[in-house]
Amino acid sequence: MICPEQANNVKNLLSTFGIPFTVQSENYQQNIVSHENENNLILAESGGNMNWIAYQRFATIQSWMDSMASKYPKIVTLETYGSSSEKRPMRVIKISATGNDGSKPIVWLDGGIHAREWISVATVTYMANEIINRAVSGDRNDLINKVDWYIVPNMNPDGYEYTFTNDRLWRKTRSKAVNSTCYGVDPNRNWDFKWGGKGTSNDSCEITYRGPRPASEPEVASSQKYILSIKNRIKLFLTFHSYSQLLLLPWSYDNVLIPDKSDLEKVAKQGAQALEAVNGTKYIVGPTPQILYSAAGTSNDWVKGVANIKFAYTYELRDTGKDRFLLPPNQIIPSGKETFVGVTAMVQGVMDWFKIN
Ligand code: 0X9
Ligand code: ZN
Q1: How does strand 89-95 pair with strand 76-83?
Q2: CA of 188, closest atom in ligand 1
């Protein structure tokens, strides 16, 4: 992206050096405005109620979680395990068809660690809603009901709200850096495993700022503590980002192979294949540095390396670059449907590996 004053200079430079280019958008702010207007119109029409035809505000998602818990108290429970820099709750919705007595494996899903990646929050809440419906129907032979689901739709609540109120393309948290005018730490560079390595910045004004120390962000510190408290039960960990349509395997900190790559790859390929069968949406499976770039201090690596959870993955959801973070809201339901099928196939793969049931 280039500011209007510099546009001609940059075009001239590219031409001078014979670098081919195409202009994808003459005015990106206009793209943002249209996307926001479209979403706001649907939100206004639906009067503050939860749905999956628009991207929802944090408060709406929270009240929807409350209403699910009060409607189905035996199946849906909520826990607040921390709070953000601006004191929003870090909240997990737990779904258990059979009363969460501690006997069943946990599947962890989280979304919204990067603020602008709205489709991740929407897809995760869509899946939570599907899982609730299936649990309510009470079929104990349903694979979905053989595990307990721990779902955090908003891993970065302050950043998420900031993308609605101030800056649609904000990525980081909203903590204030000391001795700097800049705000925010990249919460996917702040986890306490290989912190400070490749793909991270020590400059608080950068979008990949790692923070002043590992787990400096209350969102990350409380999540680490919470995950450690249930780590023995978590058999599958999935964190949702966008965009690129990738299913990433650890490690992400560097091009180093995990010893059990073939186990993780097998399950991921089952997931990607099942996902693609729904709408033809293609996902590429592979280790992060090989298909994307190296990034240290990610939640995925910490979960594998510190919490010792074998099957830990990062989804990069739709799309592949057309609308990027401004994915039209009419893609929420198709994304939710296909991703849930992919996740289900991965649950099956993990259960088979552990020989559960
Ligand atoms: O850079 C990131 O944090 C992720 N990409 S994004 O465009 N959503 O920001 C990729 C992280 C990849 N690796 C792991 N989480 N392991
Ligand atoms: Zn992301």
Answers
A1: antiparallel
A2: 3
Does ligand 1 come within 6 angstroms of the Cβ of 295? yes
Tokens at 141, concatenated: 């032979």
Per-residue model confidence (pLDDT) at position 357: 76
For the sheet containing 284-287, what is the strand order?
76-83, 89-95, 148-152, 106-110, 234-242, 311-317, 246-249, 284-287
Rounded Cα distance between 122 and 61, Å, is 9
Q: Phi then psi for 200, rounded to 5 degrees?
A: -130, 155
CB proximity list for 214: less than 8 A, separation 6 or greater: 190, 191, 192, 195, 196, 297
Contact 65, 93 (CB under 8 A): yes
How many angstroms separate the alpha carbon of residue 241 from the centre of ligand 2? 4
Least Cα distance to 35 among 337, 324, 328 occurs for: 328
224 Cβ inside 6 Å of ligand 1: no
CA dist 119 to 115, 241, 292, Å?
A: 10, 8, 19
pLDDT in tens, 162-180: 999 999 999 999 999 898 9
Contact present, 50 and 56 (Cβ < 8 Å): yes
C-alpha 299 – ligand 2 centre gap (Å): 11
Q: What is the pLDDT of residues 211-237, one digit of tens each?
A: 999 999 999 999 999 999 999 999 999
What are the residue ranges in the chain where pLDDT is below 50? none
Q: What is the pLDDT of residues 94-125, one digit of tens each?
A: 999 999 899 999 999 999 999 999 999 999 99
Q: How far apart are CA 353 and CA 263, in angstroms?
A: 8
